[in-house]
Design brief:
single chain; 424 residues; Rossmann fold; six-stranded parallel beta sheet; 15 helices; globular
Amino acid sequence: MKKVLIITYYWPPKGGVGVQRWLKLSKYLSKYNYQLIIYTPSNGVYPLEDTSLLDDISKDIVVIRRKIFEPQKIVSLLKNNHIKSDVLIKKSHNLLDRILIWLRSNIFIPDSRSCWISPSIKFLSNYLKDNPVDIIVSTGPPHSMHMIALSLRKKNNIKWIADFRDPWTGIEYFDKLPFLSWVKKKHHKLEKEVLVNSDLVLTVSPSWAKQFNNLGAKKTSILTNGYDSDDYKNLVNKIESTRFTIGHFGLYNELRNHTFFWDTINIISKKNLDFFNNLNFLFAGEIYSGFFSMIKKYKFEKKIIYHHHLNHDNSIKSMMQCDILLVTQGDTKSVDGRIPAKFFEYLGAKKPILAIGKKNSDLEKITLNISYAWFVDFNNKDLLYSTLLKIYELSNSDYEFNDDISRFSRQNQALQLIDLISDL
């Protein structure tokens, strides 16, 4: 029996996309005779909570929770609101926001969870003396998790997998943050230390694996995000309805909003009254502040159903009631490797997927072998027009999709991970 220590900031009852990867992998690893110890904060700051995810934690998993100090708590008190998921992405003209972003960028390195690094190293160093493990896994962001693992690796010479769900210095907003020059260099230095000292750098897409290779990673492997087939058991497919529902789940920030998408739907609506009358939108998750003003401009405001937050169970149920599941990329620095995690849960729902992104990106490549995924490159209005009508026609038929997508199941991914661990 192998023992694995997983250092993660995101763990239930926290909700959202950051939780899913290692929660689901842990669920299946524990079924394959792996003993897992999860190390996670007991009181972290996160805008979403989802207690339904607690049901996915195996009784055999040991969860160690330790207090963390986070500056976000002070920020939340000052601003009297929750921290937004896109706080580092969007441009703010508010003086307080700019000051807080500057402090966040230059005081807390590598990120705002950095105050947890030293106490965690001390605690886990003592813990490992009496409870040795075979493998350490750190998953980021936040990249403070990697800094904890780096120190433990050096002290104990334990095999270490550094899992990057997003890039570090290669992420879209990195070059836009107001770093002092020495702070920026520090980030590159810390990133390089993690890449060259870890036994395996795990990441979610080919482009990002190549990026980490170029930065000096000793060894890289790709383990995409995935779906858990258990989440779809006993769920009813779309209830008979003339409604044509376009659904989007998760963060929908301004970078992911594309005018040509709404313009094209508007054109079809004006030409095809049947399409317009049946049209419906379901958005669940954080949206940018100007979203509803934009919707009103197109006179679609009465066609929108919006949920600020759905727990994971209800998200999956709602996906099953949609005719199109929308995933969009922002045209940013890291776009080539960004395959949003929601894409894989859309796959599990086996509903038509409309992906909007950059030509030749990993997102486009992964759609090529999926019969119910359509890819439209940025601003390609003609292709979007014909694709929307094709899916609309399909929604009126009894056609079912039978693609073999098992390679993306969390269970099979756990087996892939076991093979990677065996090769270390």
